[in-house]
Amino acid sequence: MTQATLFAAEYGAPVALIAGCDEVGRGPWAGPVVAAAVVLDPAHPIAGLADSKLLSARRREELDAHIRAYSLAWSIAESSVEEIDQRNILQATLLAMQRAVAALPCKIDLLLVDGNQTPQVAMPCRAIVGGDAVQPAISAASIIAKVYRDRLMTELAQRYPGYGFERHSGYGTAAHRAALLTLGPCAVHRRSFAPIRRLLAQSIRPPTLKDVVS
Q1: Cβ neighbours of residue 155 closer than 8 Å, sequence gap 6 or more
Q2: 3-157 is classed CATH 3.30.420.10
Q3: Are 144 and 38 in contact (CB under 8 A)?
Q4: Which of 95, 96, 190, 200 is the 20 to 30 Å CA partner of 21?
Q5: How many Cβ atoms are within 10 Å of 17's Cβ, its own excluded?
Q6: Rounded to whole angstroms, how far apart are CA atoms 117 and 136?
Q7: Residues facing residue 75 across a β-bridge
């Protein structure tokens, strides 16, 4: 019995297309939160799908290319730093997921989401804690979201040099903390996050945000 058949029996309606959705970037101190949605093609299974955090960067890159080439559909969306600061990280994450699902070029029958919260979508949706490890479509979404965000943070490292975004992707590493103490926050730091908020309050640097315009 296929997964689609099992879900169809559970929901009492035909389930032809199932999408997986996951996010990357809830924890970092800088950069957007990114979500992806993927509809896998049963006729072209992709070997090696797993939680993106358990894969090497090289393997993620390889799988990213396969997912984009062999899936029935995929999409990627963001919520900006400004939206994170205005809405809070949870609501910004759900918004990015909603945007990713809306951007899919096909109508899906069921959405599977990693975690315990679901975005507002038109189709039935199930939240699965640890879903990126057990549902291939969610694993695929986590991989392409991770690869996309890492590339984006590398681009931001060129616009805002000195913070090491290309190495830590905005996470709160010791190197990132040291750079903040020297340079102060830049325009892509999440000012609502406690470490950045404390730094601004201490006025270690002049109160205006450092903004390097490319």
Answers
A1: none
A2: yes
A3: yes
A4: 190
A5: 17
A6: 19
A7: 37
Query: Residue holding tokens 């997912």?
Result: 67
pLDDT, tens digit, 9 for 90 and up, residues 178-201: 999 999 999 999 999 999 999 888
Query: Residue positions in the annotated binding site for a divalent metal cation?
Result: 22-23, 114
Q: What CA–CA distances, in Å, run from 124 to 62, 69, 120?
A: 31, 26, 10
Closest CA to 119 of 82, 152, 147, 77: 77
Domain boundaries, the chain: 3-157, 161-202
Element (H, E) at 14: none
Q: Among all chains, which residue has been given the structure tokens 């709160």? A: 172
Name residues whose C-beta falls within 8 Å of residue 160's C-beta, 6 or more positions apart in sequence. 186, 187, 188, 210, 212
pTM (predicted TM-score): 0.88
> In which residue are the tokens 């809830």 written?
26
CA distance 17 to 40: 9
93 φ, ψ (degrees, to nearest 5): -65, -45
For residue 171, what is the DSSP state?
Answer: -
> How far is it, in rounded angstroms, from Cα 64 to Cα 172?
26
Q: By the 8 A CB rule, do 86 and 74 touch? A: no
Which residues fall in the annotated binding site? 22-23, 114
pLDDT, tens only, 94-134: 999 999 999 999 999 999 999 999 999 999 999 999 999 99
Residues 6+ apart with CB under 8 A from 47: none
